[in-house]
Amino acid sequence: MTAPIASTASDEVPVTPVSTGPLRIALIAHDGKKDEMVVLANEFASFLSGCELVATGTTGARLNAEVGLTVERMLSGPHGGDLQIGARLAVGGVDAVVFLRDPMTPQPHEPDINALVRACDVHDVACATNVASARLMLRSLQALHG
Description:
Blueprint: E1 24-29, H1 34-43, H2 45-48, E2 52-55, H3 57-67, E3 71-73, H4 81-90, E4 96-100, H5 110-122, E5 126-128, H6 131-145
Parallel strand pairs: 1-2, 1-4, 2-3, 4-5
Helix pairs in contact: 1-3, 4-5
């Protein structure tokens, strides 16, 4: 791993290094994508079982019930779960995010969704927003940490 680039700007956000313990991965899926999240989690179940997982409410419940993963559950997305995960991410408590978004369905909490994705960009946290990018990210993390 290379050293971070030194900066003299006082308003820059420090890059949060990936944890040295188990990877901390957030798993979020809109209603129309929850089935795809369950399939993805089953595909990577052995890897994910060694990670610290956090998810929004219903997604976390399904991952626990249908895949057998231990998942810390936040509120559902429309009730603030995306913001809870974003707050944790902002203080270095999340290493990667899988957020299977449904771009074809309007979401009542769109500002919260945008805030979470923006927090990933601001804090340089990997964020996969579809199954193809999630598979690439999880395969890479598995190769590095599995």
